[in-house]
Amino acid sequence: MELFLFIVFALICILSSLGVVFFKSPIRSALSLIISFFSMGAIYIILNAEFVALMQVLVYAGAIMVLFLFIIMLLDIKHPIKETVLYKNNFFLIISLCLIFIVIVFTVANAAYNAKFMKGLKGISWMFINNSNTKAIGEVLFNKYLLPFEVTSLLLLVAAIGIIVLGKKKQIKD
Amino acid sequence: MIPLNYYLILSGILFTIGIIGVLYRRNTLIIFMSIELMLNSANLTFVAFSRFLGNLDGQIFVFFVMVVAAAEVVVGLAIIVNLYRHHKSISADRANLLKW
């Protein structure tokens, strides 16, 4: 049953990700990317990572993709963008896709195979405090990773100032 | 229990699709979405390894990656809007100011 659910959501994820790359119009790409993010959230649930799954749906599918859709709506592109010659040639596309995939999977799966932890799998009790995954993550985040967590706020501040600078109108010098 | 390799293969497939999107499309918005896809496949690897190592640190890292992705999306979209203001197009071929 678990494997069946995993395969279903993995297939949805792969197909909608292919849609992101191969749809012509950006709005269709954005919508299929939302489907991809949702099914990835389901895969996180299968991995017992509830907090990450919720963050995936709230932050990625909720906030980031809404921002994308807003920009697509506001830009209102009339002329279709000229694609490269390679994009029309399916042969090179498939060959390069296979090559990159083989390289990635061989390196990562080989590393995983050589690692010791592949065999003995622990239960899931370490993931939960009082039946709550969020509480367990908060415990680690605010003890071990307190400084990186605070530095994150600086990053967000820099991003906020950056978009104000980028977004404002050019001032006319006199 | 699903083996770890299944998650890694799924993550590899998604990363490959993201690379193909970055390499083959000329629409900057779609290039940007492909980058998001690649970040997501890295997140999947983090969570899968965290599950199999019995250690919560991987999920914390996913949290940080999400923060960085949100900041990156905001700045990147502002750059795309500026690109559109300059060239009246968001094709990556038009952004050749720094090429020589």
Descriptive key words:
heterodimer; A: about 170 residues; mainly alpha; Four Helix Bundle (Hemerythrin (Met), subunit A); B: mainly alpha; 3 helices; about 80% helix
Summarize it:
By secondary structure, chain A is mainly alpha-helical.
Account of the protein in words:
The complex is a heterodimer of chains A (174) and B (100). With 174 residues, chain A is mainly alpha-helical. Chain A has three domains: 1-79, Four Helix Bundle (Hemerythrin (Met), subunit A), CATH 1.20.120.1200; 82-121; 127-169. Chain A is built from seven helices and no strands. Chain A has helices at residues 2-22, 26-46, 50-75, 85-88, 90-114, 133-141, 146-167. In chain A, helix 2 runs antiparallel to helix 3 (50-75). Chain A starts with a helix and ends in a 7-residue tail after the last helix. The relative contact order of chain A is 0.06. Chain B has a domain at 26-92: Orthogonal Bundle (Helix Hairpins), CATH 1.10.287.3510. Chain B contains three helices and no strands. Chain B is elongated. Chain B has 100 residues and is an all-alpha fold. Chains A and B meet through helix 1, helix 2, helix 3, helix 5 and helix 6 of A and helix 1, helix 2 and helix 3 of B.
Element layout with pairings:
The complex is a heterodimer of chains A (174) and B (100).
Chain A: H1 2-22, H2 26-46, H3 50-75, H4 85-88, H5 90-114, H6 133-141, H7 146-167
Helix pairs in contact in A: 1-2, 2-3
Chain B: H1 4-24, H2 28-53, H3 57-87
**In oligomeric terms, what are we looking at?**
heterodimer
Portion in strands of chain A: under 5%
Main sheet properties of chain B? none
State the share of residues found in helices of chain B, binned by percent. Answer: over 70%
Corresponding CATH superfamily of the largest domain in chain A = NADH-ubiquinone/plastoquinone oxidoreductase chain 6, subunit NuoJ
Number of helical regions of chain A: 7
Number of strands of chain B: 0
CATH topology of the domain at 26-92 in chain B: Helix Hairpins
Report Rg of chain A: 21 Å
**Tally of strands of chain A:** 0
- Give a quick account of the main beta sheet of chain A: strands, pairing sense, barrel closure: none
